[in-house]
Amino acid sequence: MMRPGRRRWGGVALALLLLILFLRMCVRIVPDDAPTDRIAAPERLEDGEAGSLLIPVADMPPSGLSDTFTQSRAGGARPHNAIDIMAERGRAVVAAADGRVEKLFSSVDGGLTIYQRSSDGRRIYYYAHLDAYARGLAEGQLVRRGQKIATVGSSGNADPTAPHLHFAVHDVRPDEPWYGGRAINPYPLLVGPFR
């Protein structure tokens, strides 16, 4: 007869295994000609940037976030370069900062996505695996920090039983395309300095 303590550890082990399998499936999708080898060191934030972005899932506390930026994807072939924010399907996705909708895009892997350029043109915010865009959202539209732009989903190659927002940040030059730039870790921008 199995003791209750062993059964509990078996459930924990199964949950961890499922989480690892889920995290390996999450990706950032860009066009074939997009640069993929330029990644900024996550510690290179300017003074005052830590915690400067709004968490892009409505009513999500900082404690609900995990730093998945450096986790590998595609069997270790590439880094994640984003964080996944787990939330129920349909919860509001809000703009992390003021800016302009640069591109509404759909792909097999990323599903419904939004690329938003910051007001100063130095950052691209990438929102993926969306369930739907906010009514009336359009390319070129100005959005304000906290404005609803979409809803959480599991479109693309995301696990349908684990809806989430895949959120990435890229440093760009104002003349770089929406899929350019260098990935930086969004986690400290959302919750503060590295611990």
UniProtKB/TrEMBL annotation:
Its cofactor is Zn(2+). It comes from the Bacteria. Keywords: Hydrolase, Metal-binding, Metalloprotease, Protease, Zinc. Transmembrane segments: none annotated. GO terms for molecular function: metal ion binding; metalloendopeptidase activity. GO terms for biological process: proteolysis. InterPro entries: Cell_wall_metabolism_enzyme, Dup_hybrid_motif, M23ase_b-sheet_dom. Residues 79-180 form the M23ase beta-sheet core domain. Pfam families: Peptidase_M23 (PF01551). This is Murein DD-endopeptidase MepM/ murein hydrolase activator NlpD.
